[in-house]
Design brief:
The chain has helices at about 1-10, 15-20, 55-70, 75, 90-95, 110-120, 140-150, 155-160, 175-185, 205-215, 235, 265, 310-325, 325-350, 380-385, 410-430, and strands spanning about 35, 40, 40, 105, 130-135, 160, 185-195, 220, 240-245, 260, 355, 370-375, 390, 395, 400. It is an alpha/beta fold. A hairpin with a 3-residue loop joins strand 14 (about 395) and strand 15 (about 400). It binds pyridoxal-5'-phosphate (PLP).
Length: about 425
Amino acid sequence: MAELTQLQTLLDRSAELDAADALAAFRSRFHIPTVDGRPALYFCGNSLGLQPKGTHDEVLQELADWQRLGVEGHFHAQSPWFSAHRTVTNAMARVVGALPHEVVMMNSLTVNLHLMLVSFYRPTAERFRILLAGHEFPSDRYALETHVRSMGLDPTETLLELHPHPGSHTLTTEQILAAIDDVGTSLALVMFSGVHYYTGQYFNIPAITQAAHRVGAVAGFDLAHAAGNVNLHLHDWGVDFAVWCTYKYLNAGPGGVGGTFVHERHGNNPDLPRYGGWWGNAESTRFTMDHAFVPTAGADGWQLSNAPILPLAALRASLAVFDEAGMDAIGTKREALTSYLVDVLDAVLTGVGGVHIITPRNAAERGAQISLSFDHDGKAVFDALRSRGVVADWRTPSVIRLAPAPLYNTFADVAALGKQLHAVVAKEVS
Ligand SMILES: *Cc1c(COP(=O)(O)O)cnc(C)c1O
């Protein structure tokens, strides 16, 4: 009974927390999906972010311009297509802490990862190893494995996966830095995620970057779960390159255009090997077909093809919301909302065996995701939550991921989730 009262007191606090939330009004800027006719308890913004209400008009404007102008839209559309990729770079750069010419939006994440490997993974007989976190997202694993194989290298000798110490779910920064030092002069590339998709651990990007550079290696990051989630300073941290997608925390819609960061010390080096295409060529000679490839300066010089206008329009609409809210305010709410979720989960799970939070408890080591690991029956809990209107996701072997997105989730959402989980675990786990 004492536990129930404690949980109830905590859930009752949600109204006061929502009233004090500086970003509360932003929820109304999004379409909230429904489950059985009621607004979903949507905790899946780390997988597919919700649609900003502004997206519809922004995309329809492109269709109208195409309808009205045909090919003339390249120069006369509301956002001329010729330079459309640049309409998002300033706002995108603010979100990831980059200079505008260090960011380009193009392709999709895994494609961009391969393109970055072409430029930044330059193995030699001595220096060829790649260090990554264990249990990484499959696409990254596949990209690295096939990429090194395409270069004639053996993935089993090349890829070093770092696993947590026994009994732990997450890596410590000390462990990562020690591994980098250990591999030393044979380390070509540290390829880490910013926020790990499974555990929700936010890695110490500046410390990893510095350690990689100390041993002469390149530091690259996959920010799929970090961009639009945690406060990044890619330029100041000296990160060599990064890639991300925009359909998770960045709310740019399914299949959204990917992002790439190339630090300016590399971006302005035309001699860096790369795969080229016409859109990455200097604009002045792009259409003169008789000369050798001359990359345009900055991250733009990695573009291959002309820009995807409809996905860029969706991203533009979303980034307008990010600009209005600001990453600092988003970060403040993210910490408060995620900490509240942890408190609620702790209260719900008091006395319930076999369920653990595997995401770091230190707020500096996580973003807006809490991963709950189940010793058994996890999938049944997930299914029961789904039937009660909770949209979360299940990751094999044993995790429910819950992501409270600061732009549209409320403290009341978290309280309602706690109430539903309490009802479910009382049935399923005990
Ligand atoms: C979501 C995600 C991807 C997705 O890759 P796409 O190329 O956008 O399909 C890749 N890597 C990580 C770590 C992810 O979280």
